[in-house]
Amino acid sequence: MRARSDAHTEAVPDDARWIEPVVVPDDLRELAADVEAYHRERRSAERRRRLERLTGTRAWRRTAVPLAVVTGALALAGIVFAVLTVGQPRQAGGPSAAPIATAPGAALGQLGGLLPDVTLSTSTGPVSVRDLRPALVALVPARCQCTALIAELAGQADEARVQLVVVAPMAQDAEVAALAGQLHVGHVVAAFDAAGAMASTYTADGVTVLVVARDATVSYVQTAVSHGVRLELPLQRIAQLGE
Q1: pTM of the full predicted structure?
Q2: How confident is the model over 132-145, as pLDDT tens digits?
Q3: Is 91 inside any structural domain?
Q4: Could you tell me the CA-to-CA distances from 157 to 49, 91, 169 in Å, in that order?
């Protein structure tokens, strides 16, 4: 039997759109860009196929949500860590403690004399106030309601790269205990003097500040401190005293 031919035998007009001139380049390097684009498309398609095979599996569907939760938790932990790190004390490069002065220029507890060896209670345990040197020490009254003022003092102590030691004249004070978490500038140590020995020695009136040098001598005392007090000059002397 003779097969029927379905070939198109009609005349094709000369202006048919599919008849286009074919240009063959003299140098095959001219096709390099097209070849590279072709291979890029192939590689991209292959990556999509691999990803689809992975995400389409039952194992992926079971683990995708837990992995997303863990990733989000790690990211959140990183953000919290960064925030807490920024808010931590800048002690690097600050003045360090020197040996305690053996021949101070004044009597114990006086301006120019040694800081009394009073044991304070802190969140890390009992410590001698002398061991916290150098420092800006703020003696506060009970229930002083002076958090804003303490924040100013913490900022100035931080500029001098020393810690601020806030001493309450009692075994416990909620406002003082909360300072370290409320203030985000400087290094604040909340301390408690159950016997009120520090306040008695320096006849504290309102908020009283002591600048304690590297050798545990007191180089500056000011009582009844109020907002706007400037302690830059006394604090700058800390690095010089005790050398």
Answers
A1: 0.62
A2: 999 999 999 998 99
A3: no
A4: 61, 11, 21
